[in-house]
């Protein structure tokens, strides 16, 4: 029995798809997704308490006036590095028993262009994708406009993906 990894060896192209290589075909009841609501609410609460959603904190970061946001981002990167190391070292699997596979990525100029656009949008709006929802949840309803354009930008990228420099 061949799995998807055996039939599709173009991992770079595959990684751009919205379906994961380890996609699970399990069917679940509606309440199965409540755990994601709980984790999302907890994530938003942490964002609020850590002042990550504060427009003023974000502006301090881009003006190099405070270490706060750099400390938060740096600690997240450190946790990510340690997590990937442990997953690889102990061959940790998903909660459904699927193998976690990491693929090497090649560097290209499109990543620099995308990073600059992302940073400009972050500096102008005071939000990156995660905190947008927490900001809306705290009553900063003007962020609905930012959310709309973030979704629109994602759609535009998906539409022109094949023509962009990857």
TrEMBL record:
Keywords: Membrane, Transmembrane, Transmembrane helix. The keyword Membrane applies. InterPro entries: Sulf_transp_TsuA/YedE. Coiled coil: none annotated. The chain crosses the membrane at residues 36-56, 68-87, 112-134, 140-160. It comes from the Bacteria. Pfam families: Sulf_transp. This is DUF6691 family protein. It comes from Flavobacterium capsici.
């Amino acid at each position: 029995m061949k799995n998807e990894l055996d039939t599709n060896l173009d991992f770079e192209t595959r990684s751009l798809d919205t379906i994961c290589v380890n996609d699970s075909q399990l069917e679940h009841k509606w309440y199965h997704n409540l755990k994601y609501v709980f984790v999302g609410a907890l994530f938003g609460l942490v964002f609020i308490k850590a002042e990550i959603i504060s427009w003023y904190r974000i502006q301090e970061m881009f003006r190099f006036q405070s270490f706060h946001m750099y400390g938060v981002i740096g600690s997240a990167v450190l946790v990510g590095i340690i997590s990937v190391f442990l997953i690889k070292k102990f061959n940790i699997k998903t909660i459904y028993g699927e193998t976690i596979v990491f693929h090497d990525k090649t560097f290209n100029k499109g990543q620099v262009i995308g990073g600059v656009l992302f940073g400009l949008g972050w500096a102008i709006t005071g939000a990156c994708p995660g905190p947008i929802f927490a900001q809306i949840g705290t009553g900063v309803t003007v962020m609905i406009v930012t959310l709309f354009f973030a979704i629109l930008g994602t759609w535009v990228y998906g539409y022109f993906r094949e023509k962009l420099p990857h």
